[in-house]
């Protein structure tokens, strides 16, 4: 995990030296510090700047959780899990996951935009601070959290000098350089805008079009209109609203309309989404780009780079003003439906493209779209007649819940969607088998069986053969993890036959073939398992599919190790680890780490094998029941543990194992991907000459007690 997920600053930070110093002192004394102030006063910018400057104080880094786009209080803990970069596959609540992860870490958590969720946020942070002594929280919002031990820093407007510097600097960035003779006018502008940074930024964006004198005159006229002619009578919280309203008046009718319509977006959005959602008779789609560019030039919309490419975002205060205008136009409900429809379409496209070379692109696009997908799901659940859409959308996102490590949030939405009566049976059936799949991966067999049995019964009644096949497939997967291999082979085989008959081919189908291969491999039919996974690998290469390919590589590595081909096994597992780490698929990743430990032992390096075994432990903690409680999945681990202990001695094994257990996920992956130790390499045999300091070079101990069907059944040595 990276030490920080703080965004890079896009322009120069101006002023606030005294506030930064005070905040640094408070964070040294208090474990919860909240920066409060009116909208647009710069709370977020100060918090991020200070957090970046104080990173070295915190051994485990700084993480930012942005809550402004959330509407569901139940998602606050999920958002913090996401901010910390955690992937949890268990049925544990996110609060428990957070406490366990943070209990022994020294970390600064920045929580921004919490004011609309203050009760849920305060309760959660209180629990975390009590249970995690090394945690410090820096919050930024419009009001305090009112948690015991909280220190509050009320952020004032900028000083006159800093305000003028900010206004002039931002104007220069926009292409305008006020003349020296305008210095007095700039100071008056800053005074009239009460030194509120957002108001100053909006004013600066107008200076390429209007002189400072013209700006001041227009602004002064608006202040007089709103305060009845009493200069200076406006409170500071009204000043920003006045400045935004003034910017609104200076916009063209098209710009105002787009501003209002953009308010329905809950997070970053791209141009195509804007063209679909916001285009219409009054604003043709082919005009959207130009109008959006004008809002961007006026600092009403910001551009940002994301993992899925460039996106746009409207500041919360600006969006709230637009939402009021959209409501006044009587167009809110229609625009929310258009927004929902776009993201329903995006989810459908992503599901289809998951089985393609664009799999990584799909994962990144879904990550960025998550706030808007949440908003779409919320709308579907608000309207009773749209419950089927909620079930369909939650089910369509199966690839994200299962393939990108989002099981906990997926379970949240699936449970909510299925808790509402809906008319369209097909949507419910899809949500049911996806819920069963998610529950299996979480280790919740009871919920999985209930969902899959209901899906199977309803599918028969509705004559929906496809849903029935998916239910059968997932019941077979559950049997595989429960070590009922004959039943797993029978159920998965039956589902694959049904898929073939219906012409269904996607990542789920190929995963079924991999699972069938595992059932056969565990029963000793390695040749049959290799044939199945070789076919999967070939199809994945043709289609550019990587996620299922990684699981096929795992089975092929299992067979290669059994055949004594350590080089091939390592190569296959290296690719497997790389893919699973990229997709945040902890199940596939930890299985590969465990098998790679046995490969490493077979290569003659029991110390590094112990390190990898230790590194797998925290990953299993996130996945749930280690190796699903399966004797067959657990076989390679037990064998590696016993033989490495014999080679190193109990204390030696424990020491190397402990070193691995202390590794972060990223460090564990780096360790797994490192070149294997080669005792024949030049200099490797000399006294103290080791290619890496953690390699011991001690040979494995021969073993003749190997279970049938294990990948370690050849040659009297570990995996040959």
Indicate the topology.
Blueprint: H1 17-29, E1 32-36, H2 43-53, E2 62-66, H3 76-83, H4 94-102, E3 107-112, H5 118-131, E4 135-141, E5 150-154, H6 160-173, H7 183-192, H8 197-204, H9 212-227, H10 236-250, H11 253-262, H12 271-278, H13 285-297, E6 302-306, E7 309-313, H14 316-328, H15 332-353, H16 359-382, H17 387-396, H18 398-403, H19 407-418, H20 425-441, H21 445-462, H22 465-481, H23 485-502, H24 507-522, H25 526-543, H26 547-562, H27 566-582, H28 586-602, H29 606-623, H30 631-648, H31 650-661, H32 665-673
Parallel strand pairs: 1-4, 1-5, 2-3, 3-4
Antiparallel strand pairs: 6-7
Which residues sit in consecutive blocks of at least 5 with pLDDT less than 50? 224-236, 681-710, 712-720
Q: β content, as a range? A: 5-15%
Cross-sheet strand order for the largest sheet: 2-3-4-1-5
Work out the helicity level.
Answer: 55-70%
- C-alpha geometry: globular
Largest sheet: 5 strands, parallel
Radius of gyration: 29 Å
Name the average pLDDT: 86
The CATH homologous superfamily of the domain at 17-154:
P-loop containing nucleotide triphosphate hydrolases
What CATH architecture label of the domain at 17-154 applies?
3-Layer(aba) Sandwich
Assign the structural class, choosing from mainly alpha, mainly beta, alpha/beta, alpha+beta, or little secondary structure. Answer: mainly alpha
Distance between the termini: 36 Å
Topology-level CATH name of the domain at 17-154: Rossmann fold
> What is the tally of helical segments?
32
Counting DSSP E segments of at least 2 residues, the number of strands comes to 7
Q: Kindly provide the name of the CATH class of the domain at 17-154.
A: Alpha Beta
């Amino acid at each position: 995990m990276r030490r920080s997920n703080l965004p890079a600053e896009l322009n120069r930070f101006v002023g606030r030296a005294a506030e930064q110093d005070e905040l640094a002192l408070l964070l040294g004394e208090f474990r919860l510090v909240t920066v409060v102030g009116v909208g647009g006063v710069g709370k977020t910018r100060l918090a991020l700047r200070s957090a970046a400057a104080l990173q070295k104080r915190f051994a485990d880094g700084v993480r930012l959780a942005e809550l402004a786009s959330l509407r569901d209080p139940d998602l606050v803990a999920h958002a913090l899990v996401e901010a910390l970069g955690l992937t949890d596959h268990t049925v544990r609540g996110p609060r428990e996951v957070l406490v366990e992860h943070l209990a022994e870490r020294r970390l600064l958590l920045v929580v921004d935009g919490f004011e609309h969720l203050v009760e849920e946020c305060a309760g959660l942070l209180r629990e975390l601070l009590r249970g995690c002594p090394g945690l410090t929280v820096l919050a930024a919002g419009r009001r305090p959290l009112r948690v015991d031990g909280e220190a509050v820093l009320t952020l004032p407007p900028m000083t006159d000098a800093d305000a003028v510097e900010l206004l002039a600097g931002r104007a220069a960035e926009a292409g305008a350089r006020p003349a020296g003779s305008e210095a007095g006018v700039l100071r008056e502008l800053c005074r009239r805008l009460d030194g509120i940074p957002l108001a100053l930024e909006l004013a600066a964006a107008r200076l390429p079009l209007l002189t400072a004198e013209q700006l001041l005159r227009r602004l002064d006229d608006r202040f007089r209109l709103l305060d009845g002619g009493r200069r200076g009578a406006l409170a500071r919280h009204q000043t920003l609203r006045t400045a935004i309203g003034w910017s609104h008046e200076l916009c063209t009718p098209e710009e105002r309309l787009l501003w209002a319509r953009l308010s329905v977006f809950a997070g970053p959005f791209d141009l195509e989404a804007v063209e679909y959602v916001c285009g219409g008779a009054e604003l043709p789609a082919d005009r959207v780009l130009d109008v959006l560019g004008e809002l961007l030039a006026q600092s009403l919309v910001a551009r940002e780079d994301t993992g899925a490419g460039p996106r746009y975002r409207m500041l919360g205060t600006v969006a709230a003003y637009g939402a009021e205008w959209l409501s006044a136009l009587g167009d809110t409900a229609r625009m929310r439906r258009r927004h929902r429809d776009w993201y329903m379409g995006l989810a459908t496209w992503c599901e289809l493209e998951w089985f393609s070379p664009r799999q990584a692109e799909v994962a990144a696009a879904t990550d960025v779209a998550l706030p808007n997908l949440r908003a779409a799901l919320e709308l579907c659940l608000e309207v009773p007649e749209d419950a089927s859409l909620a079930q369909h959308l939650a089910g369509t996102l199966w690839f994200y819940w299962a393939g990108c490590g989002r099981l906990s949030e997926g379970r949240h939405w699936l449970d909510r969607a299925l808790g509402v009566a809906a008319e369209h049976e097909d949507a419910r059936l899809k949500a049911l088998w996806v819920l069963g799949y998610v529950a299996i991966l979480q280790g919740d067999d009871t919920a999985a069986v209930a969902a899959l049995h209901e899906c199977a019964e309803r599918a028969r009644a509705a004559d929906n053969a496809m849903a029935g096949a998916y239910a059968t497939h997932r019941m077979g997967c559950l049997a595989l993890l429960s070590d009922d291999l004959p039943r797993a082979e029978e159920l998965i085989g039956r589902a694959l036959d049904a898929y073939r008959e219906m012409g269904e081919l996607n990542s789920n189908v190929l995963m079924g073939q991999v699972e069938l291969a595992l059932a056969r491999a565990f029963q000793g039919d390695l040749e049959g398992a290799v044939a199945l996974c070789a076919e999967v690998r070939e199809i994945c290469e043709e289609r550019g599919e990587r996620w299922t390919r990684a699981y096929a590589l795992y089975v092929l590595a299992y067979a290669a190790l059994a055949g004594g081909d350590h080089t091939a096994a390592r190569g296959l597992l290296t690719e497997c680890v790389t893919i699973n780490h990229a997709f945040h698929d902890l199940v596939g990743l930890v299985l590969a780490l465990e098998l790679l430990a046995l490969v490493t032992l077979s290569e003659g390096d029991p110390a590094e094998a112990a390190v990898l075994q230790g590194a797998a432990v925290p990953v299993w903690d996130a996945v749930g029941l280690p190796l699903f409680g399966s004797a067959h999945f657990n076989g390679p681990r037990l064998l590696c543990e016993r033989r490495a202990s014999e080679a190193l001695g109990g204390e030696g094994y424990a020491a190397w194992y402990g070193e691995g257990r202390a590794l972060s996920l990223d460090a564990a992956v780096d360790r797994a991907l490192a070149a294997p130790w080669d005792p024949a390499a030049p200099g490797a045999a000399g006294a103290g000459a080791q290619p890496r300091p953690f390699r011991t070079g001690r040979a494995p101990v021969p073993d003749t007690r190997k279970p049938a069907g294990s990948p370690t059944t050849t040659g009297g040595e570990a995996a040959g």
